[in-house]
Design a protein that fits this description.
- InterPro entries: F420-G6PD/mer (IPR050564), Luciferase-like_dom (IPR011251), Luciferase-like_sf (IPR036661), Luciferase-type_oxidoreductase (IPR020020).
- Keywords: Oxidoreductase.
- This is LLM class oxidoreductase.
- This protein is of the alpha/beta class and about 325 residues long.
- About 30% of the residues lie in helices and about 20% in strands.
- The chain starts with 7 loop residues before the first helix and ends in a 10-residue tail after the last helix.
- The mean pLDDT is about 95.
Length: about 325
């Protein structure tokens, strides 16, 4: 086994030829007041009780008025650490950390701390970022995002292998005189690419432990999943983000929406089974209903759909 395959969160969430389901957080509901932190915790605990496999938080370093009314976003590491203290087994993911806007040393220490404190439940999605208004604030040149991403990924892999790696790159330098005191249990934390991250799929397959992608037309996704799994020497999961507007009518038929579907639970189950057959290993559900309470939706999907895609026992 590789060190990643020994990771508790990885083993519980991902398995070849099998699908599990997670939820996108922070939880929010259009046209409703912000869901406060106590309610966030209650919904996270409900998801764990119903055997959802993961909670994946977004990373939005800055806010712009052009984004409109969006849910408050806490720092992802702080938010997930708080949820880790109030849950016991559900995996805690990032979808995704804007790797180009964080120093690798801070990122390595924050991720290691969360992974240890949560008993190896962190799944670290990593992205280059796509909000142009954020880069000037961090003095990051958009023309350098691709290289900066590669450098950050390689740096994290080095930093987690040894307390005092000898590193010299365009972002920072580190010698044996300066050390990280604590390393991850298996000297690695699962890192998941997001989209292409301005890289080739060959680079992602070689350097990342899994791949998070956005919903595609079914046949397009089938080709993409096949391309991802092809010729991999070890299992690397394919993860999909899916927007769902779940009807209160369980028999409602399917209507495509941006990034997903409007449908009832019976057709949603069939859709998810179809995604499993093409090799999708995990789907992060983001419920966008305007006409139903989020708790009711989580309960319905958890009761009627999640049992078909159970979290893996370890």
């Amino acid at each position: 086994m590789t060190t990643i395959e020994d990771h508790e969160g990885f083993k519980r969430t991902f398995k070849d030829k099998h699908l599990t389901l997670g939820l996108s957080i922070p939880f929010d509901q259009p046209k409703q007041k912000q869901i406060n932190i106590d309610e966030q915790v209650e919904l996270a605990q409900l998801a764990e009780e119903l055997d959802y496999s993961s909670l994946f938080v977004r990373d939005n370093p800055l806010y712009s008025k052009y984004l409109g009314n969006v849910t408050e976003n806490y720092d992802p590491f702080v938010f997930l650490t708080y949820l880790a203290a109030h849950t016991s087994k559900i995996s805690l993911g990032t979808a995704s950390i804007v790797a180009t806007l964080r120093h690798p040393l801070h990122l390595a220490k924050a991720a290691t701390s969360l992974d240890i404190l949560s008993h190896e439940r962190l799944l670290l999605g990593m992205a280059t970022g796509d909000r142009s208004f954020e880069f000037p604030a961090f003095k990051v040149n958009e023309d350098e995002l691709s290289e900066r991403y590669r450098t950050t990924i390689k740096s994290l892999q080095q930093l987690w292998q040894s307390n005092a790696p000898d590193i010299s790159n365009a972002i920072f330098e580190l010698s044996e005189e300066s050390v990280l005191q604590v390393l991850p249990k298996n000297k690695a934390i699962p890192m998941l690419g997001t989209g292409y991250s301005k890289q080739s799929i060959e680079w992602l397959k070689q350097n990342m432990d899994g791949w998070i992608f956005y919903a595609q037309h079914f046949q397009d996704q089938k080709q993409l999943v096949e391309q991802w799994h092809k010729d991999n020497e070890i299992f690397k999961p394919f993860i999909n983000i899916l927007f769902v507007d779940l009807s209160s009518n369980p028999n409602e038929t399917v209507k495509p929406i941006k990034g997903g579907y409007r449908t009832g639970r019976k057709m949603l189950l069939e859709i998810l089974k179809a995604y499993e057959t093409i090799g999708t290993n995990h789907i992060i559900l983001r419920f966008i209903n305007k006409d139903r309470q989020l708790k009711d939706i989580i309960n319905e999907v958890g009761t009627y759909i999640v049992p078909h895609f159970p979290t893996h026992q370890i």
